[in-house]
Amino acid sequence: MTNFFIFIGLIFIAISVWQLTKIFELSQTKKTNNQVADDKDNDFNGKMMFAFLIFIYVLTIYSFLAYGDVLLPKAASEHGSTYDNLMWISFAIIFFVQTVTQGALYYFSYKYRGQKGRKAFFYSDNDKLEMIWTVIPAVVLAVLILFGLYTWTDIMTVEENDESLIVELYAQQFNWKARYAGEDGVLGDANIRFLQDFNGKNLVGIDATDPNGFDDIVVQELHLPLGREVIFKMRSQDVLHSAYMPHFRAQMNCVPGMITEFAYTPITTTEQMRQDPDIISKVKKINKIRSENSKELIANGEMPLDPYVFDYILLCNKICGVSHYNMQMKIIVETTEDFNKWINDQQSFAEVIQ
Amino acid sequence: MSTITNNSHEEDHGHHHKETFITKYVFSQDHKMIAKQYLITGLFMAIIGILMSLLFRLQLAWPEKPFWILETLLGKWAPDGVMDPNVYLALITIHGTIMVFFVLTAGLSGTFSNLLIPLQIGARDMATGLLNMIAYWLFFLSSIIMVASLFVEAGPAASGWTIYPPLSALPQAQPGAGLGMTLWLVSMAIFIASSLLGSLNYIVTVINYRTKGMSFSRLPLTIWAFFVTALIGVVSFPVLLSAVLLLIMDRSFGTSFFLSDIFIQGEVLHYQGGSPVLFEHLFWFLGHPEVYIVILPALGITSEIIATNSRKPIFGYRAMIASILAIAFLSTIVWGHHMFISGMNPFLGSVFTFTTLLIAIPSAVKAFNYITTLWKGNLQLNPAMLFSIALVSTFITGGLTGIILGDSTLDINVHDTYFVVAHFHLVMGISSLYGLFAGVYHWFPKMFKRMMNKNLGYFHFWVTAICAYGVFFPMHFIGMAGLPRRYYTNTAFPYFDDLADINILITVFALIAGIAQLVFLYNFIHSMFYGKKTEQNPWKSNTLEWTAPIKHIHGNWEGEIPHVHRWAYDYSKPGNKEDFIPQHIPLKKGEEELQH
Predict the structure, then answer these.
(1) What is the pLDDT of residue B596?
(2) In what order do the strands lie in the sheet with A241-245?
(3) Looking at CB atoms within 10 Å, which of A183, B60, B260, B568 has the fewest?
(4) Which of B167, B268, B412 sits opposite A319 (nearest CB)?
């Protein structure tokens, strides 16, 4: 039904456009002036320019009020808070510049709208002004670059220590798998050539001749212990994928033929995140939408939607084929005890291929 | 006839050359006709490209809901009116390809470089009319192939306009990677050949065919922009050609430039030792300069139109040239900012962050100079002027978010999300499209000897301007919520369910904007035949093209080509009654040639 109304609406718009066209045409034949803007056009469009400035400001404010709650909650990783700070500093600068420059642009367009007989001010150059608006952006950018590079180096320098947990993220069309290094803390060698060994039970192609591989654990749900650095080694078996974990401010492409790397330390468990006020209100809003959608589904004799509970997600963020939009894995951050308990329940590679 | 020199003796033969329909309208070597051919082909492609975006916006706003229009237009690809996910990917791929290359590169740069370079520098035609004609027909051929790929059984290319292998290399990976992809590659190879021939011609013409007195420091900024654009094209397009050829080899001849260790559909493929990251480097070595190939001509057009309609000299002429050159140089060393998280060495990421953010400086200079040009002007708010002002506006809005995306750190979490889509659509898509519209409204009288209807122009502008912000401003929020681009629907993630409202809002704005373009199309076609006849210099502009007769003649000027005595921006110069002094008017006694 909604579709019907939308199309009716569109047809009306089309008709009105057509009518407008005709009106303009008719009005045009009587006028003797040509198609160059006259004082009336300048006055009208100049005022419209000012109105448009207000439109941009209002749209900005409205978007933040109305859509502010869809933004990601506070970062759930150690480096994430630095990331968020840098983001908000950049945004503050952007908003300041945006407000001032758009203001000047549209205000001038309004203020200096043309009038017959007025002469413009011949003003072709001013070295001082040029210098000012070369140097100021340069200085601001230098600060941003330095802050950015410092953070970047900090995030991207992965140093293994005894404490860090090594996890392989394995991508294929269209699902994710994770491999834990097991008790020895070393991932066994792997290659796609071994995928067909053991009747397809070798899900990520572990090399059965490498002793390091036998205690490896392959799972379909990513569990991470709280407060411990996790070093991800990414692989892909077919096309490019990208492991995107927005809540942790983390992303790295998975490239067939090579191993890529990203590391972070989770600082908020799934349970803690579910208690976060932002998440509580977001989940509430989502569930309201879902229950409304369910009503329609029930009316059509279909199954209603399940209520939503928050979980961290891992998404594919590099176009990879038909089900790209549904290539996901759940991430669970838990206390070390819970994590150890969980991992002890999983089957090692040696057990799987037996 | 293929080369028309500045020698006035030779030109006399030129005028009386007999022309048939074929040589005048089809295989024409006249730059004015070729410009029109580029424009009309470009607009035709734009209709396809824009229509595609409206179709997939329907899917994004009302996922998996049936629409009769989808069934009508897509046939078996939208069974019962519901779009197939593979078709969604195909649509975004071809939308991107068509808009970036066919509309905003060939349609924009091809049209106005061809029309304006000879006319504004005072030349009888391009350096070689034959190459110019071949360039257009190669572009036409590549357009035909690209459109033909839409009718392939398994669908056209569907791996994104960036066609990263292995997805684009393996027919097993997706249906679009078969014949559709082959046609895409062939079409692009031809397109690149066309673009190179065109660019070489522009460069040679600007360097060698300027009329007497037209020094580089008197060139209008339009010409500077087209000239530098052509230079960037010549430097970077061949690299894409190499990437395309290597990809064809990988696909059809079993080489492994970009492929290694692949297991797909239960089969280990033979590829060994290649790297998809290499393709990304080659692609973006063109792909990023391409952004400037698209935006610089639009900025050149804007410079001309803003100065003319402000009745003021462009502020900081030399700074504008310097910033064009700086942007052009920097554009070739920033490609890695598309690859911060591709798995390349993080140190490279630092380097590319540095070079990328540097580009903000010349861009800022340009924006400030435009604003200062408006200050204390006597603004003639013609449709072309409105689009030019709006171009500066979207260039600023879109450019500013580049500070976030160009910063490797911040890119981590917004990379490939809708934040990127919003950013580049504003800064290069909408801005360049505005440049195209501005150029068409401004030079329509030069091309078709008639004026476009201004009231329809105003209507077109205001609806488009409001909708463009309505579409792309809220889109930033979807990106910052963490939603990746190129998703057929976000309903697979309940976490994103609260984005439904924004998606509907965006689609509604997009549909209205799409309909508003019909007004433009109507105005364009109608004015071509029934528009008001133009005066010779309707906008009271200084540049040389308005000294040429309204009637199109081969060789552009009857008799001698005007000589140039001043720069193009003597608007409202003190001590003159008129508020403009065309470039061919000699300096008065004691008049100082102000040039900055």
Answers:
(1) 53
(2) A222-225, A328-334, A312-316, A241-245, A250-254
(3) A183
(4) B167
